[in-house]
User: What shape does this take?
Amino acid sequence: GAILQFWAALDKNKPLNEVIDKFYREFSYRIRQDILVKPFTAVFDFCNDPIGKVDAMERIGHCGDGYEWTEWLYGREMIIIPIMVPDFKIERYLGYGRGVIGGNFWYMCETKEAVIEAGKEALKAIGKIEGVITPFDICSAGSKAETKFPHIGPTTNHPYCPSLKDRLGEESKVPVGVNYIPEIVINGVTLKAVKEAMKAGIEAVSKVDGVVRVSAGNYGGKLGDYKIFLRELSLEV
Assistant: This one.
């Protein structure tokens, strides 16, 4: 089996129940279109200390078109959805909680080989930390808070694009000798878990030849409720 995390940003200007309803709608699409349609799959609740639960019958169970039923299986109330490769099972009540989204670090590289090797080592190390995911794995397109095109969302972090170094001149923040700046983004169920994952990932990339510097997205302190300073991670590098 696999433990999956599904994430959505909170909107402080909207009631929590409205945010959860939108999240559940998006979450249900992924269950119906990506998991239910695969043979011999099932979904169980694995949320520790949830702040609430959604009823999977409403947006997922009714894929049975009225032929679905519930049973007590594996010590849980399960919805059985009859499908052509029998049958899809999902726990009726699925928990949700609050976590920390968007912890990150950058590892600045001289070579393509360092980008891939260091990225793999970072993901391996982070994978040992409980309660975290890396939603983009090795991410090649770090973004910034400001944009000229807000209708499309985050845009490229241009001062850190190596291909723009000559064009930007003094505005460029790409260090000498750096040709690639990949990013590892980390979401976690607690701030402590995110910090542990950042520490593990940074220590892993620092051992790879061709990685010349490590930094992180700061965004002028404008983005998010938490600030994680790399110097406070007790790094062993």
